[in-house]
């Protein structure tokens, strides 16, 4: 294969954007040249990112061609209506009793006026620009990465104009099957439009990529030619870290790294920890709950009014490099997913970086989740449902006792399959 076989990657998220969404194609772009592909990135010039992380800039190859064009998105107007609308950019919502009338109105507007999302105004100008660019540069393969799923509409338009174009639609998260979809307060007409557009993408894309086994299966049922390539960890990030042995820490530290919103709040874990701190003085004396990232204010408020108040260490959002350090400086790592069965196919990207640390993982989500399959395969921890209670305390106490006795060992079994380089090799074979 010629090394100058070019592939255009259409992505909204790109450094200096922070969060897991940016890392998937950043890492693919980093390793694709080793497998005979030269990536070209198409991304907005003036995006409205919910998080920034300058440390990811170091992973952008110096010779990578990046094309940027202006985007208009209505988030500034939404934020004037209600400051909490900043959450929408990351797919977060106030739910239940936490919703006031402004939240309700904003969610209704977001779901019904901007289909599939607020980046839809970039679709038409991008289609016009890229049609010309692709023809002039003789590029025959494109990738669209969503969410935002507006990126897939750019691919759909280009495929209809240029039928011989090879189009890979990459779904980092599902579209109508994502947990917050049902919270969008959609009218029947809006729901039909979302589902029609999703179906058009599945039918017209040459290949649809999913980040989980279940999502790939669901996409195939809906008419897509779907393959699963999970997210992963970059050995270049992990190998440069000196891992802190769990037993050498002054405290038994349970850490959550990333964004935690109300829809993935493990209330039964907080209940178990509350009980342990209240009834086990040894545990209470040695335990710390560390948050690294953006934690919903309502969740923090609840924890601050509980027995855990004096055990919380909230570091806020930090760079990706620092986040990897904080993972290494933990005893057990926490991961959460949405509780409903339709979310069993979501594999949060951070699990792979967790695996690379060798630390034990405690996971929350639906039964038979894809995360459970990964934890079983790697023997890296335990998965719980949102109704489990006593078993959580038993698991934590077991790990705590191992930590106290200096036996909480690191574990990295069967994880090389999830390295970014190996995953890029998989991608190149599909291409």
Quick summary of this structure?
By secondary structure, this protein is an alpha/beta fold. The protein has helices at about 20-30, 75-80, 100-115, 125-135, 150-160, 190-205, 215-220, 235-240, 265-280, 280-285, 295-305, 320-330, 350-355, 370-380, 390-405, 420-430; strands at about 5-10, 35-45, 65-70, 140-145, 165-170, 205-210, 225-230, 250-255, 285-290, 310-315, 330-335, 360-365, 380-385.
- The CATH topology annotation of the largest domain reads as Rossmann fold
What would CATH call the architecture of the largest domain? 3-Layer(aba) Sandwich
As a percent range, the share of strand residues is 15-25%
Taking strands numbered 1, 2, ... along the chain, how are they ordered across the largest sheet?
Answer: 3-2-1-4-5-6-7
CATH superfamily of the largest domain: Glycogen Phosphorylase B
Q: Which residues form runs of ≥5 with pLDDT under 50? A: 84-90
Protein name: Glycosyl transferase family 1
Keywords: Transferase
GO molecular function: transferase activity
Describe it for me?
- This protein is of the alpha/beta class and 431 residues long.
- It has 16 helices and 13 strands.
- The chain folds into two domains: 5-73 and 112-233 and 420-430, Rossmann fold; 235-414, 3-Layer(aba) Sandwich (Rossmann fold), CATH 3.40.50.
- Helix content is 39%, strand content 16%.
- The chain has a seven-stranded parallel beta sheet with strand order 3-2-1-4-5-6-7, sandwiched between helices. Strands 10-9-8-11-12-13 form a six-stranded parallel beta sheet, sandwiched between helices.
- The longest helix is centred in the middle third of the chain and has 17 residues, at 188-204.
- The protein is globular, with a radius of gyration of 22 Å.
- It starts with a strand and ends with a helix.
């Amino acid at each position: 294969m010629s090394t100058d076989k070019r592939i255009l990657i259409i992505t909204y998220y790109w450094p200096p954007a922070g969060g897991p969404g940016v890392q998937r194609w950043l890492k693919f772009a980093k390793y694709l040249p080793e497998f005979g592909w030269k990536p070209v990135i198409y991304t907005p010039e003036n995006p409205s990112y919910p998080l920034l992380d300058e440390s990811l800039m170091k992973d952008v190859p110096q010779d990578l061609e990046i094309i940027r064009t202006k985007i208009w998105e209505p988030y500034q107007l939404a934020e004037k209506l209600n400051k909490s609308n900043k959450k929408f950019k990351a797919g977060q919502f106030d739910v239940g009793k936490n919703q006031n009338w402004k939240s309700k109105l904003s969610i209704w507007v977001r779901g019904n006026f901007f289909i599939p999302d607020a980046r839809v105004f970039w679709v038409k100008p991008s289609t016009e620009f890229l049609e010309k660019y692709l023809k002039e540069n003789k590029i025959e393969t494109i990738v669209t990465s969503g969410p935002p799923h507006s990126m897939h509409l750019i691919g759909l338009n280009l495929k209809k104009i240029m039928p011989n174009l090879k189009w890979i639609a990459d779904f980092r998260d599902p579209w109508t099957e994502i947990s917050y979809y049902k919270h969008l307060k959609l009218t029947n007409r809006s729901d039909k439009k979302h589902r029609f557009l999703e179906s058009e993408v599945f039918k017209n894309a040459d290949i649809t990529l999913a980040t989980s086994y279940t999502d790939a299966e669901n996409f195939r049922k809906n008419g897509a030619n779907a393959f699963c390539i999970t997210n992963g960890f970059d050995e270049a990030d992990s190998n440069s870290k000196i891992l802190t042995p769990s037993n050498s820490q002054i405290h038994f530290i349970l850490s959550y790294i990333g964004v935690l919103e109300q829809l993935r709040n493990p209330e039964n874990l907080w209940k178990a920890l509350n009980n342990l701190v209240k009834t086990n003085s040894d545990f209470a004396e040695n335990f710390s709950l560390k948050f690294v990232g953006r934690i919903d204010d309502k969740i923090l408020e609840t924890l601050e009014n509980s027995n855990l108040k004096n055990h919380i260490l909230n570091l806020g959002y930090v760079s990706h490099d620092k986040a990897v350090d904080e993972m290494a400086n933990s005893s057990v790592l926490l991961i959460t997913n949405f509780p409903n069965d339709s979310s069993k196919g979501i594999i949060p990207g951070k699990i792979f970086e967790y695996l690379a640390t060798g630390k034990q993982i405690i996971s929350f989500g639906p039964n038979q989740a894809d995360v459970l399959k990964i934890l079983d395969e790697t023997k890296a921890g335990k998965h719980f449902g949102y109704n489990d209670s006593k078993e959580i305390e038993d698991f934590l106490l077991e790990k705590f006792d191992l930590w106290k006795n200096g036996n909480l060992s690191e574990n990295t079994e069967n994880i090389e399959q999830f390295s970014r380089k190996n995953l890029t090799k998989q991608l190149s074979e599909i291409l």
